[in-house]
Amino acid sequence: MYGVTIRQLRVFASVARLGSLAKASLELNLTKAAVSMALQELERQLRTPLFDRVRNRLLLNASGEQLVPLADELLERMAGIGELFADGNRFAGQLRIGASNTIGNNLLPRLLAQFMHEFSCRRPVVTIRSTAELVEQLKRFELDVALVEGRTADDELNVLPWGQDEMHVVAAPDHPLADGRRHDLESLNDQYWVLRELHSGTREQFERLLLPQLDCWYLALELNTNEAVNNSIAAGLGLGFMSRLATQSLCAAGELHEVRVSQRFPRKLSLICHRDKFRSPLLECFLDFSQAWQLRGRS
Q1: For the whole model, what pTM was predicted?
Q2: CATH classification of 166-264, choosing from 2.60.40.1640, 3.40.190.10, 3.40.50.720, 3.40.50.10490?
């Protein structure tokens, strides 16, 4: 029987996530020497190295990658035991939720407000980033679940359907195409566009749904937040291809106008988790609640 301790696993998980003894020592409030000794003892107990040492960086090797989900599960179970008997709450632990920009700004606040009102649990830690960044965080077990738009194809992840959204073309109120008439897609050629950054869910939708139908287009600006894109479109810098969720308030206020075109552009929203992620009662509850919330019409 291996003499692996919770402290060693906690050190391992921190070093695996941060890639540095120094950063792990700060996170764990331990000396760098103590972190190094705990890691070396863990490797000795398991009789295998868990990291490749490369220029003062610790990079997970194949054995380390196998241990990550197991350590994550054990640490969550241990934390849950302590919290369960501390306050009698069966939903022990703290959720780490990721959301892409459109969902994080427009849907997640209402979802969390209703979830936390109905269930007694700790305040979750929320990360709002691009879909590509969230996928990488899930694969490193830095998040429990992420809510994203667009396609996510990765064998390490489980993808659960979570409703639909729709993309549409928007422009400043005085743009010639914002006249309320229906235009064919050819009218979008030779236009300047304000877009989200590469690898974002919104940019992926533009490149997959609209770009193949354009013969000629120009990039006016590339920005990393929906707010910046919307404000730039409203200022007349170009057309945009945005989620209705992200533009509804500005369209209602008359600061953006929809460019009516001859085609609709629906897209799917998804809940994604790592396939090896331990699903605590709290995480299972959140997943079930989130799917039911969408079915109820986000009310």
Answers
A1: 0.72
A2: 3.40.190.10
